[in-house]
Specification:
Layout lengths: L11 H4 L8 E5 L3 E2 L8 E2 L24 E3 H16 L11 H12 L11 E7 L14 E7 L10 E7 L16 E3 L7 E2 L3 E5 L10 H12 L3 H6 L5 E3 L21 E7 L40 E6 L9 E4 L1
Antiparallel strand pairs: 1-10, 1-11, 2-9, 3-5, 3-9, 4-8, 5-6, 6-7, 11-12, 12-13, 13-14
Helix pairs in contact: 2-3
The chain binds zinc ion (2 copies).
Protein name: DUF1963 domain-containing protein
InterPro entries: YwqG-like_sf (IPR035948)
């Protein structure tokens, strides 16, 4: 099923034509629960990984103060919650069986040793053919993203590993992919297939030229429109387009080589917020009489900080230059 972002309440370029040259496309990925394979684009799916290539391991220092869980216990916990809520009618008490209650209590009480070595976890796989705003090195056609699902000293979020490869060269696919034993539970993505959709974005308002920002602010007051929340940058996982800086002030993202970095990917905690402005038309269908867990707006169940996003920047000069992260 395709996913379609609803039209914006107003076309900002019709109201302020001088913003038109700043229009830039992004690809909303629209992850939804599914069973992706190694030849599919996915979040939380298996990677097309050569059997002879070592799987990445994190060597960065970790913060050991989070909520550590065993990965298999977290998967079990999610299955239990999803099944029990799935047979709970809205407005009624949760339909957990006594056995489920006991098992959840046991899983919640389980402790995990944070000093376990950290194998990286597959987070996303993006084939160029599926994501129009993705640009890769010559010949490469798939981007693989892994992360160490722990908080790291320097940024308080997972450490990412980006791998570009030529899918045709992978003939002997690694059958059983390594996984970390212990992780912070918010960093386990549910397996999702993608429904990419290209969309036009406009700059974060601090970067609007001249006095345009002030004029848009004045127009917001008189018209009731909200440039930042509804007219500029899309919610949810996406590739390309503009970055938001609503948690900190804008910070220069400059590569060690001196180049201004570009936004590669937004990893978001939810696909749309409570206003539902960014909820695709296809997801607005009638809700079931039963609870949905996870909710439609949080298909991956990844949570960044307190419901923020992780923004991944890369250097336009070389794919070999290290990426940088921002949490907003
Ligand atoms: Zn790590
Ligand atoms: Zn660079």
């Amino acid at each position: 099923m395709t996913r379609t972002t609803p039209p914006r309440p107003v076309d900002i370029a019709a109201v302020f034509p001088e913003i038109a040259p700043f229009a830039r496309t992004a690809t909303r990925l629209h992850p939804r629960p599914g069973t992706p394979g190694v030849r599919d684009s996915s979040v939380g799916g298996p990677l097309l990984w050569p059997s002879g290539e070592p799987w990445p391991v994190c060597t960065e220092p970790h913060e050991n103060e989070g909520d550590f869980v065993r990965l298999d216990a977290e998967r079990r916990r999610r299955r239990l919650l999803s099944a029990a809520w799935g047979r709970t009618r809205r407005g009624e008490r949760s339909a957990f069986t006594p056995e489920e209650h006991d098992e959840l209590r046991r899983l919640d009480g389980e402790t995990a040793d944070p000093d376990t070595p950290t194998t990286m976890l597959a987070v996303a796989q993006l084939y160029l053919r599926d994501v129009p705003d993705l640009v890769g090195p010559p010949g490469a056609d798939v981007l693989q993203i892994l992360w160490c699902p722990r908080d790291h000293d320097y940024i308080h979020c997972p450490a990412l590993e980006l791998r570009w490869r030529r899918s045709a060269e992978v003939t002997d696919v690694l059958a059983e992919q390594p996984e970390p034993e212990v992780m912070e539970y918010e960093y386990l993505p549910n397996p999702c297939v993608l429904h990419p959709e290209q969309f036009v974005e406009y700059p974060y308002d601090d970067f609007l030229p001249g006095d345009l920002r002030e004029r848009i602010r004045a127009w917001e007051k008189s018209s009731g429109n909200r440039y930042f929340y509804e007219l500029s940058i899309a919610d949810g996982w996406k590739v390309g387009g503009y970055a938001a800086w609503n948690l900190t002030d804008p910070m220069p993202m400059v590569c060690d080589c001196g180049a201004d970095m570009e936004l590669l990917l937004r990893i978001d905690s939810s696909e749309w917020d409570g206003t539902q402005s960014w909820r695709p038309i296809e997801d607005a269908g009638p809700e079931s009489e039963f609870h949905e867990h996870p909710s439609r707006s949080t298909p991956t169940e990844i949570v960044i900080g307190r419901g923020y996003s992780l923004w991944v920047f890369t250097c336009p000069i070389s794919f070999d230059h290290p990426h940088r992260l921002s949490m907003q």
